[in-house]
Structure formats: structure tokens, C-alpha cells
TrEMBL record:
This is 8-oxo-dGTP diphosphatase. PROSITE patterns: NUDIX (PS51462), NUDIX_BOX (PS00893). Coiled coil: none annotated. Its cofactor is Mg(2+). Residues 204-240 are annotated as: Disordered. Residues 226-240 have a biased composition (Basic and acidic residues). Keywords: DNA damage, DNA repair, DNA replication, Hydrolase, Magnesium, Metal-binding, Mutator protein. Its EC number is 3.6.1.55. The lineage of its organism: Bacteria, Bacillati, Actinomycetota, Actinomycetes, Propionibacteriales. It comes from the Bacteria.
Amino acid sequence: MNTPKTVVAAAILSADGKQVLAARRTFPAEAAGRWELPGGKVEESETPEAALVREIGEELGCLIEVLDWMQGESAIGAAGSTTGRLIAATARVVAGEPRPREHDQVLWLAAEDLDSVDWLEPDRPFLDPLRHVLGVPEEATVRGIFFDEDDARSAAATLEREGWTAKVSRERYQGEDDDEDHPWSVETDAPELVLELLVDEHDGWLDIPEGPPDDSIAPEPVELPDNPKRIKRPDLGSGS
Ligand SMILES: Nc1nc2c([nH]c(=O)n2[C@H]2C[C@H](O)[C@@H](COP(=O)(O)OP(=O)(O)OP(=O)(O)O)O2)c(=O)[nH]1
């Protein structure tokens, strides 16, 4: 019986750390057109790290530095006939530019675009950890404020159960008149409507950051007269 091969894959991060490189396979037929983190099999007497650097050199013609191995691994192969295990590490390019030699396309994907391509099955468990590495975009977060820690934590648990991120923290002192009763905040990437339902349920409120004034709703400027206005007096009649 063949021992399952270890396949190493690289989540190559862009220089600003906000995007990851996805690559589209061209073979075998059943995987062609689907997306993966580039990489390949670890050879005998090779460390996973050395294999990853070698594979990326061969496939993309650039030199990478391996940063961190991500938690977990997934099985490669059809159910019941596992042919290998996939592990993945974050990495950065230290020389050259990634240009596909074996893949027919590569794409830089931000956290919010990760679900826009058809990943090979074994890569999918790495997408959530990757979303965290890439960071949730600032503008996509909304905050709910709760008086009670229990309410905040239970709202956060509901959000996480539904697949959103949720960060609970204690609000800071607001100033001199502030008392001990600081509310709790829950910051999430869930849509505002989802959080709104939870704050209603838990007696909290939404914290909507004040944006710049919206010009589109500014009132039309009032037209000022150029000359003194003539006030028409009622005609009182000239008498006789
Ligand atoms: N490289 C890579 N392979 C993956 C991923 N996900 C996944 O299921 N696989 C599968 C596809 C292949 O069956 C196997 C790795 O094959 P490969 O063709 O990339 O590896 P390799 O360069 O060492 O292949 P070889 O031509 O030397 O045999 O793992 C992934 O994210 N990256």
C-alpha cells in the first residue's frame, strides 16, 4: 500500500499582506479550471519548507520565504481513497515576480474575494484562517453596543455560529462624567441588518460611525436677490 504523500501549498501574500495568490490548475482533467494554492509533493528527504520553496520556484519562477504553517490539514483524493494530505503555509515573495508556468491563470484575491473562485475541495478549510490573515476590511465592520457583557457575548456567539467574525471588547471611559458602567461592544463583519436584529433582541444599539457630510443631500443654496426687493403694498386707493 502506498503511504499518502504530503502536498505543501503556499498562501503567497501580497507586499501589503491584504491579498493572496490563487492559481488555476490545468491538469488532471477533473481539477483543470479549479483554483488552488500553488505547491506540490514533498520529495523524500526534503523538508516541507524546502519542498514549498522549490515547488514555487518551479511553478511561478520566484523565490518565496515561508512565514507560518496554517493550522490543520486536509485529505486529498476521493472519499475512501485518500492519496495524500495537504498542508499550507503563508509565504511572501523575496525575489522575482510570480508568473505562472504550469497554471493557466493566477489571481491576487483580497479577503472579501476569496469565495469568488472555485477552489479545489482540500483547499477550502484553509480559506477561513486565510480571511483572518488577510484581515477584514475596515469599512466592512459594524459595531453593536450592549450594556451587559452577557448580551454582548451571546450576540457575538450567534454571529460566529452564522459564520461571521465577532470581537467583543469593553468600551472605554467617555470622560469626566463617566461612571463605572461602561458598555460592551461587538465588532463584526456581518451585514448591518444582521447585527441590527441582534441589538434589538439584546437591548443594545448600533454604533454607526459618522461619515463625511453627504453632499448629495445638502439643501439647494437659496437664491438671493440682486436688488432690494420691492414690497407690493395693498392698494389703499388714492382717496379724493
Ligand atoms: N499543489 C497543490 N496541489 C493540490 C492543492 N489542493 C489539492 O487538492 N491538490 C492536489 C492536486 C494534486 O492531486 C496534488 C498535487 O499535485 P501537484 O501536481 O501540484 O504536485 P507536484 O507538482 O509535486 O506533481 P508531480 O507533477 O511532481 O506529480 O494535490 C493545492 O492547493 N496545491
